Amino acid sequence: MTLAVQHARLLFVETARVPIALGFNVAFPTVLMLFFVVPNSAIADDPAGATVATAQITVFAVMNSCLLNFGVGVAEERARAWDPYLRTLPAGPLPRMAGRVLNGFAYILLAVTPVVLVAPLLTEATLPPSALGLAIPVIMFSSLPFLFGGFAIGYSMSVKGALPTAQAVMFPMAFAGGLFLPPETFPGWLDTVSRVLPTRAARELGVWAVVESPVSVVAIAALCGWTALTMVLAVWAYRRDEGRRFR
Description:
By secondary structure, the protein is mainly α. It has one domain (about 1-245). It has helices at about 1-15, 20-35, 40-45, 45-80, 80-85, 95-120, 130-140, 145-155, 160-175, 190-195, 200-210, 215-245. The chain is about 80% helix and about 0% strand.
């Protein structure tokens, strides 16, 4: 655990030394909130609508942090000469993986916090402490498919391939998952497809955490299924990379 904390500290400091990287990760979801939710009086002036919109932006912040930190971040790390040396150490890959996960969770909280602070100040969103207490574990659980998906991208691609792939995954999944437009506006076929996506599942659980709505069993099942699938892909990508570079 000590090694994992040290790895997390190292990764955090490395990113913090590049202000544009830290600022983009933290500010981008808040900018979306300020541009698309706050000026829209039909949403901002409706407590339920503003709260649901906040949950949607929060899920996007989680996905953005995971795909960039774990996808692009891992690809960048693999390109450095330091990475092969670390893999030869007797500690094994688990401390490094755990450290990157801890670092990712830290950036998730940094990205989500401004959105949660802006929402009650500039809209009619209601986020009581009890809802926040439930929302935090829901956010962490919902981040798992994107976390492992980021690992799969980072360990299977170069930096040049990881960045466009992460973006190509992020924006279509965000749209189809109801993070930019409410699923109620979707045509029937898109709504059906949307229900099996991890973004839609994360949105449904996020809305359940902050608004009085029934728990979606389909969302929980979809999130668990995507978590298992992306975990398998991440393990495969890591072993494939290790086999190619160190045999």
